Automatic annotation (TrEMBL):
Keywords: ATP-binding, Nucleotide-binding, Transport
Residues of the full protein shown: 12 to 239 of 272
Annotated ranges, domain ABC transporter: 4-228
Domain of life: Bacteria
Record protein name field: ABC-type nitrate/sulfonate/bicarbonate transport system, ATPase component
Signal sequence segment: none
MF term (GO), any: ATP binding
Length: 228
């Protein structure tokens, strides 16, 4: 059974000159523990696909299943990392990392333990009481990752998580994402317009057409399978 299964998904947005078709016919199936990348030009509906998969929007048509259940709203074990990381500037690193657990009403003592473990996994244990503004770009990225790691995530959705970083850091963070995924074993959907990133981080790469987005073709990634 796939972790995530999107079939014939269409999404239109209301625009000034009538409806805008953002996604025409999206089909995507991700196995448990599998990492896929969605590659496509700007505006083809990549972010929309993730918002739909996360249950933050309802599709205009088509079906979206997680664990064979229709997605009706946000799901506890689905984590979404956005381009700006969604950090709260007035909260400390520790509090930011614990936000997902707080929303899920996990008791404070358990929160503390899980946050400490996740911060250690991403190497931020010494920055627990710092604020996001005191962190470098790479550290913010790792903090967003720590937040997802605290939540027993089994489906991680990432919208261009590396595009705000400079080239050198991007390479380092690519390694971090790959290592964390391999260690934690969640299913992962990474949206990107970078071919290099898609090929480095996706076991399969879904290539989309320009807007309105459709799946153009799927690429089994020989590079990724070679070092399995
Ligand atoms: P991508 O992530 O591939 O750049 P998006 O999913 O963000 O694509 O957007 C797909 C299309 O839908 C774009 O043309 C965009 O302008 C439009 N769109 C996205 N979100 C909205 C919205 N909330 N309202 C109206 N149009 C939107
Ligand atoms: P990366 O994110 O890959 O670790 P960075 O350039 O972000 O690379 O940071 C490298 C190291 O420098 C960090 O792991 C941290 O120990 C230290 N560092 C970066 N920014 C700060 C900061 N604002 N305050 C203290 N130490 C920092």
């Amino acid at each position: 059974m796939p972790k995530l299964d999107m079939r014939g998904v269409r999404q239109t947005y209301a625009g000034v000159h009538g409806d805008v078709m953002a996604l025409e016919d999206m089909n995507l199936s991700v196995a448990p523990g599998e990492a896929v990348a969605i590659l496509g030009p700007s505006g083809c509906g990549k972010s929309t696909s993730l918002l739909l998969a996360a249950g933050l929007r309802k599709p205009s048509a088509g079906s979206i299943l997680v664990d064979n259940e229709p997605v009706a709203g946000p799901r506890l074990k689905t984590s979404l990392i956005l381009q700006d990381f969604g950090l709260m500037p007035w909260k400390t690193v520790e509090q930011n990392a614990g936000l997902g657990l707080q929303i899920r009403k996990v008791p404070k003592s358990e929160r503390k333990y899980r946050v400490a473990r996740a911060l250690e996994q991403v190497g931020l244990q010494d920055f627990a009481s710092s604020y996001p503004a005191e962190l470098s770009g790479g550290m913010r990225q790792r903090l967003a990752m720590a937040r997802a790691l605290t939540c027993e995530t089994d489906l991680l959705l990432m919208d261009e998580p590396l595009s705000a970083l400079d080239a050198l850091l991007r390479e380092e963070m690519q390694d971090m994402l790959k290592r964390t995924w391999q260690a934690a074993g969640y299913a992962q959907v990474l949206v990107t317009h970078s071919i290099e990133e898609a090929v480095y981080l996706g076991e399969r790469v879904f290539v989309m057409t320009p807007r309105p987005g459709r799946l153009a073709y799927t690429l089994d990634n020989p590079e990724m399978h070679a070092d399995d």
